[in-house]
Amino acid sequence: MTNYVTRAGIEVDQALATFVETEVLAPLCRDGEAFWAGFASLLGEFAPRNAALLQKREDLQAKIDAWHIERKGQPHDAGAYRAFLEEIGYLVPEPGDFTIGTEKVDPEIATMAGPQLVVPILNARFLLNAANARWGSLYDAFYGTDALDAPAARPGGYDEDRGAAVIAEAKRFMDEAVPLADGRKWADLTDVKERGIPLADPAQCVGWNDKACLFKHNGLHIEVAFDPEHPVGKTDPANIADINLEAALTTIADCEDSVAAVDAEDKLLAYRNWLGVIRGDLSESFDKGGKTVTRELAPDRMYTSPEGGEFALPGRSLMFVRNVGHLMTNPAMRWDGKEIPEGILDAVMTSAISAQDVAGLGKYGNSRRGSIYIVKPKMHGPEECAFTNDLFDVVEDLLDLPRHTIKVGVMDEERRTSANLAACIHAVMDRIVFINTGFLDRTGDEIHTSIQAGPMMRKGEMKNSAWLKAYEARNVGIGLKHGLSGRAQIGKGMWAAPDLMGQMMIEKIGHLRAGANTAWVPSPTAATLHAIHYHREDVFEIQKGLGEVPGLEDLLTIPLAEGTNWSENEIGEELDNNCQGLLGYVVRWIDQGVGCSKVPDINDVGLMEDRATLRISSQHIANWLLHGVISEGQVIDSLRRMAAKVDEQNAGDPTYEPLLANEDSPAFSAAKDLIFKGVEQPSGYTEPLLHAWRLKKKAAA
Question: Which molecular function terms from Gene Ontology are attached (predicted)?
């Protein structure tokens, strides 16, 4: 049970209230009573608006469901469908020509192109790893992954053959990014201390210190470390010990899809970790190889410029924080007898914490432009974006921050946002710094929006569907049309297979060629490797050459499996694939509070799973059930067989609780509910059921 204290009519978890007053407000010299009174006033205005927006989602969905049910068995009429969506207000008129007016944006977002990480905010160790992934060793990234096409390292210490292949490949990269004069190769470089480095373009050398030379290419830095005493450096003809790439320019500390935060205890941990990032004193100690290791935030890196002056480069990613969407409430605070909307809670708390960065109170600092960066997910259309804009206005007033200090990233991952993206950008045009495409949530919403229209195509076929190609192209095109290039990020989604870096290096460069100046990767190592792509392609030049924005026709094409006659084997394969992925994710969420992890798929390939992937799997099964493609009995049979597989995959985890022998457990019960109650879930979201079953699990424990 939450132990509440009352502040200006708000019931606040006592530990959270103490944290806010002593650790957040006191360093800012803010009056606690005035803060709580302002918070209460804010809730009086925005909690009812939040509820009204959620009701509008339900009303629109009910009308769309009825439209499809009335036309069951008839061919889909695309023209009539679009007219209907306009009539009910699902589609709104396009705004006139406009250019975003966002100001005071850090270069990592506005004028640089590079990888982006998303990390669960509840895990301090992961959060530190991600924040420190601004710089990554190219030697380490090649040595430990399949990105290098060479025999794997032999066990038992450093493999010199593997190391030689790593060094050769890294120096080939240097030949591309920082070419030497007269056609010379980095592999042939010797006597650097005496002869220097003969660059084809001397201006690429932008600094040095006593251990390294610093170069710049396509806006990104490359640090070549020299050390004749280092085990690698002493055997290298030029004494090169490592090549460090500027990698994860930005990182999103995630309060949403990658965490399981269901109560005041969880939210307090999230806010403490965010405060640790902002103050610069976050640390985490853990056992590694029998020794206690303490991880802290990396300091800035110091260099001397060619002109003789000293300068610093950030040692850490520029940090965003992702608040939750509009849907959920949280018991951490109550107002007017009800839990307050969690999105409002996050907006106030994360902004108040970030105000310490604006005030210059951190050890290192995050934004050098005095901005606060919040990513806002799961917004449905321009009204919800306008709500966020208005909310951030009032939060700024509450914290005495200049207007538009709080910047917003709009995640284009719901169908009503995609279809009205220009209007969504217009609603936040003076604070927007980020749009991106998220195939996973966007697919979940695609299925749920049209769940009554008929059975959907198989998940794998979705990747080649008309709506997806239009979605990806429209996102970039609309962003460029309204002036995001040079002012904001246009991003692409996650590479979900952290062990398949070789394949990532082949495929993910396509995100740059599509015009994205950032894209998500699953690990610091992946960020280092993906950084190579930004040296091979100049995204800002690519953006200049992109064409017209595709129309709405393909985007509104429903991915129905019309005319498909699946075999029993095909249906079984799809069902098993969905059930296995669903169970493998849900059991960790409910039993262990793990919101994102590498979960083995049905073929034992580790994939990064979060609630977005769960939304697809649960909605797809619910859709096929609704239209009679599969039966309830088939689903139960598949769940039982896949539970055995998931149990086997987790056999090495001593904290794991088996599914197969516990069909009444919270985890197995949650999995069944997500399927059998899937049609009625708001927008097909998984959070209401996950939160309810996780709270039962925590109460039982």
Answer: malate synthase activity
- pTM, two decimals, is 0.97
Mark whether 610 is an active-site residue: yes
Give just the sign of the alpha carbon dihedral 288, 289, 293, 299. negative
- How many other CB atoms are found less than 10 A from the CB of residue 561? 17
pLDDT (tens digit per residue) in 326-366: 999 999 999 999 999 999 999 999 999 999 999 999 999 99
Quick count: other Cβ atoms within 10 Å of Cβ 573?
15
Among the options 49, 322, 415, 458, which is catalytic?
322
Q: Give which of 125, 117, 118 is closest to 273, Cα–Cα.
A: 125
Q: Which residue has tokens 């989604």?
A: 493
Q: Are residues 151 and 100 in the same domain?
A: no
**Biggest alpha carbon–alpha carbon distance for the chain:** 82
Provide the 3-class DSSP secondary structure of residue 209. coil
> 246, 280, 304: which is the final residue of a domain?
246
State the total domains in the chain: 3
Token pair in block for residue 112: 């640089």
Amino acid 701: pLDDT: 87
Mean pLDDT score, 251-279: 98
Mean pLDDT computed over 209-231: 97
Same domain as 178, residue 308: no
Q: Does the pLDDT of residue 25 top 80, yes or no?
A: yes
Q: What is the CATH number of the domain that holds 194?
A: 2.170.170.11
Q: What pLDDT is attached to residue 196?
A: 87
Half-sphere exposure of 451 (CA within 13 A, CB side): 26
Instruction: Give yes or no: residues 262 and 278 share one domain.
Output: yes
User: Residue 612 and residue 567: Cα distance in Å, rounded?
Assistant: 28
What is the pLDDT, as a whole number, of residue 662?
92
- The residue to which tokens 């850490």 are assigned: 316
Instruction: Give the end of a domain, one of 208, 223, 246.
Output: 246
Q: Which of 445, 610, 647, 673 is catalytic?
A: 610
Binding residues for Mg(2+): 413, 441
- Catalytic annotation present for 188: no
The answer to whether residues 424 and 378 touch, using CB atoms and an 8 Å cutoff, is no
Q: Give the residue numbers of the binding site for acetyl-CoA.
A: 118, 125-126, 258, 295, 522
Cα–Cα dist 269/283, whole Å: 13
Reported as a pLDDT band with limits 50, 70 and 90, residue 195 is confident
With tokens 């209401």, the residue in question is 688
- Give the three-class secondary structure for 428: coil
Domain assignment of residue 679, given as a range: 568-700
113 and 260 share a domain? yes
Residue ranges at the known binding site for glyoxylate? 322, 413, 438-441
